[in-house]
Amino acid sequence: NFANLITIIFREGGFSMLDKDKEKRLIAVKIAKAINSIEGVPIPEQSEEFFSMWIEGKITDKQLTSAMLSICAKV
User: Fold this and answer.
1) Per-residue pLDDT reduced to its tens digit, 3-23
2) Which residues contact residue 50 at a Cβ distance below 8 angstroms, ignoring those fewer than 6 apart?
3) According to the model, what pLDDT value does residue 5 have?
4) Are 69 and 6 in contact (CB under 8 A)?
């Protein structure tokens, strides 16, 4: 389900939530998208803007989490 998206990015022992490495953030998003695709769960289009901002370091991990939870609540 869509919760996998958040889980893979923020799970304990996964990619560091404090890591500022753009490449690692990009990989985390790609992995999360792949998992959802395999499970047949589409990712809402409005999430793309937040992913891009997070990858670029324009929003924090907490802001991305809040945005994703808000989007999930509407789906």
Assistant:
1) 556 665 555 555 555 456 888
2) 59, 63, 64, 67, 68, 71
3) 60
4) yes
Q: Are 4 and 36 in contact (CB under 8 A)?
A: yes
The distance from CA 60 to its chain's CA centroid, rounded to whole angstroms, is 11
Single pTM value for the model: 0.73
Residue 7 contacts residue 1 (beta carbons within 8 Å): no
**Does the pLDDT of residue 63 top 60, yes or no?**
yes
Residue with tokens 């989490």, as numbered in its chain:
65
Please, what is the Cα angle at 2 between 50 and 25, to 5 degrees? 40
29 token code pair: 């998003």
